[in-house]
């Protein structure tokens, strides 16, 4: 199974990137994962949607070739980041490579509520662009108090890791069901 991850934070020491890299390492026996670079995408412009720059074409092809997508979002002003929203705008136009694609939203923040509100907005956007999101009930990876749960660049909190194991198991099954 090939999974592409989008990380909605460009910060060098992003907890969302640390979460994705933890997943990449921890579940390398379950799937191959590639982290898409979204910080280099130009701002979406309808004038360019039919003939996008090569970086956008490559990004869209990466998503089209994936079996599933993970999206890890920080919470900025109760919503997703602009860089993540921009990437989703490109994926929603013309050939729409994310339409019908199984997606697992997740996120990390320093606050007590994690990225709850950002994920609510993310799910609205994913619904509008016809992505197939994993049902949220019991599957929401919302990690708050990040500074206490990550160490040396990876997630180390045992309770959170056990929950992550459970959700990733269900996600792999979900992807299998969606792709049959």
TrEMBL record:
GO terms for cellular component: cytosol. SUPFAM superfamilies: Flavoproteins. The keyword Oxidoreductase applies. It is an enzyme of class 1 (oxidoreductase). It holds the Pfam family FMN_red. InterPro entries: Flavoprotein-like_sf, FMN_Rdtase-like_dom, NAD(P)H-dep_reductase. Its EC number is 1.7.1.6. Residues 1-136 form the NADPH-dependent FMN reductase-like domain. It comes from the Bacteria. One of its GO terms (molecular function) is FMN binding. Keywords: Oxidoreductase. Belongs to the azoreductase type 2 family. This is NADPH azoreductase.
